[in-house]
Amino acid sequence: MNGYQDGRLRTRWRRAARLFAAAAALSIGSAALTAALTVGTAAASVSAAEDAALAAPAVSGVTTGGAHTCAVLADGGLSCWGANYSGQLGDGTTTSRSTPARVGTATWVGVDAGTSHTCAVRTDGTLWCWGANSRGQLGDGTTTRRSTPTQVGTATTWARVSAGYEHTCAVRTDGTLWCWGFNRTSQLGVGTSPYVATTPLQVGTATNWANVTTGFAHSCGIRTDGTLWCWGYSSDGQLGLGSLGSQTTPAQVGTATTWTGVTAGYAHTCAVRSGTLWCWGENGYGQLGVSGTYQTAPVQVGTDTTWSRVGGSGDTSCAARTDGSLWCWGENSSGQVGDGTTTHRNAPSRVGTATTWTGGLDVRSHGCAVRTDGGLWCWGDNSGGQLGDGTTTQRSTPAQVTLLG
């Protein structure tokens, strides 16, 4: 098969990502020895480290990039850590960090990390992006890499943003949807042209978009009427439209009007509908939560009807249930499923025994999630210091991260 389907581009992308992460790990150096961060494992008893964590500011949201992590604190502060080869930490350098560091002094309401760029919305409704920009994914009208947050236009009505591999999409408070960056596979939803957009382009004329999610070469979004729409490349059925090939503008997935959440992985998609969980697309690692080959239309994951939300942007997905339990599945080569193994899972595997996973969650080659008390826990690949524990040691179970105020 040609293009993305033959796997060659994907292999090159992953090899490059590993090289970047390895280089980033080398630059962390001795700073890790004096890191102002404590970590406690989920199985540990109350300790001085956990006491310190209790005093740290709570986290309201978290996002995992290719080899970096960012979190919005309850006080509105933003912290990032991990690989920084493209300036994706936003601290004005390209030096990697294995412990969290604040991004300026502004206050933020949401953040999303792409493979090597980051975008976030401030409390004043402005949108800012930083990091890699070779395909215009920062939306600032250039293809210049930025190591500090750079404003996207002048609008003050941005509500939420999703950063993909080399494209970005965002929703405004008026319900309009905008995308920019790489458009090789029509992942911007505006047709086949332009090939690259360095500033936001409106996607259609609909004014009822509620959220959006970006994968490697496709995007999906949910409207306020509960309908689900996807567009871009469908090498393995990741658009859920029952066929392979490209979709140049948003196309509705089935006829259901009860979708409440969706996440776009590398070449698969998962979504929640009336408490049930559905996935489609590539399934080489079991990332659909079922056995078998790729699926071009949504397939239900088990029979449980208490799923509340789902997250993930690689070949792994995680989802939480209304009882506060956390489950992950798919690729697990770096322990990103969080079940204490590195065995790929083709069905949801429970992450520990805690029932307090009611905050944000995200997973790629590493995963992070927030508990009821605002505590942040991360696990999986740590080659770029993205677990925030002052080391580059991989972890296959969640460890708590302390973000200093």
From TrEMBL:
Record's PROSITE patterns?
RCC1_3
One Pfam match, given by its short name, reads: RCC1
User: Which of UniProt's keywords are assigned here?
Assistant: Guanine-nucleotide releasing factor, Repeat, Signal
Q: Which domain of life is it from?
A: Bacteria
Coiled coil (residue ranges): none
- For whether the record's keyword set contains Glycoprotein, the answer is no
According to the record, the segments passing through the membrane are none
SUPFAM superfamilies found in the cross-reference section = RCC1/BLIP-II
Q: Which organism is it from?
A: Micromonospora solifontis
In terms of InterPro entries, this protein maps to: Ran_GTPase-activating, RCC1-like_dom, RCC1/BLIP-II, Reg_chr_condens
| Annotated ranges, domain RCC1-like | 57-352
**Signal sequence, start to end:** 1-48
**The protein, known as:** RCC1-like domain-containing protein
